[in-house]
Amino acid sequence: MRRIALLPLGITCFALAACNFTAQAPASTAAEPASATPATPAPVPADVTSPSTALAVGTMAPDFNAQAWLAGKEFDYKLADARAKGPVVLYFFPAAYTPGCNIEAHQFSQAIDKFAAAGASVIGVTAGNADQLEKFSADNESCAGKFPVAADPGAKIAAEYGVVLDKKPEWSNRTSFVINTDGRIAAVHSDLSPDGHVDAMLAGLKAP
């Protein structure tokens, strides 16, 4: 089941994500590598929190600060500061260096010029394999230095957005949000597959 809801407001996009799931019905509501070999990731549980638990369109997006990396360089990411510059796309994903999350990060990196043309910035947030985010942020097979990724220890930020994994609550599922400059959520897209998140977020930015 896939649902996309959009708000016709100035949009801040903030994208969120999930990794390497087996086939299962996707769900959506509108508005996942470097010189040293990365550690073998833990398997991702096959089920996720019902997308209905994700914050709904029109809800105020919780502000947060988080340790983040862009092209291998660490900095303090602040959602409020990003929103002040224009639309932000926030996407949650289960864990760095897992197949689905590698694909999704690569897709966002390939589309970064389209987001920039819409005046939007992109931020990925994960609680899984956060110790590898420095490398992940620069790896040409994932983020390629095109957008930052932030660590969410214990999935505390994910919990505020209602996107934790049912059987692994210390990780998030794969959910993306478009957040307007006023802080309200304009679109939500939850899907176990990495495909579709980029298009859904771009559609949200183009909505009248």
Can you give a write-up of this model?
The chain has a single domain (about 15-35, about 45-205), classed as Glutaredoxin (3-Layer(aba) Sandwich), CATH 3.40.30.10. Helices cover about 20% and strands about 20% of the residues. The protein has about 210 residues and is an alpha+beta fold. It contains 6 helices and 8 strands, in the order E-E-E-H-E-H-H-E-H-E-H-E-E-H. The strands form 2 sheets. Strands 1, 4, 7 and 8 form a 4-stranded antiparallel sheet that branches. It has a 4-stranded mixed sheet with strand order 3-2-6-5. A hairpin with a 5-residue loop joins strand 7 (about 175-180) and strand 8 (about 185-190). It catalyses: a hydroperoxide + [thioredoxin]-dithiol = an alcohol + [thioredoxin]-disulfide + H2O.
* Overall form: globular
Count the DSSP helices: 6
CATH domain fold name: Glutaredoxin
- Helix/strand order, N-terminal first: EEEHEHHEHEHEEH
CATH 4th-level superfamily: Glutaredoxin
Termini separation: 25 Å
Residues in helices, as a percent range: 10-25%
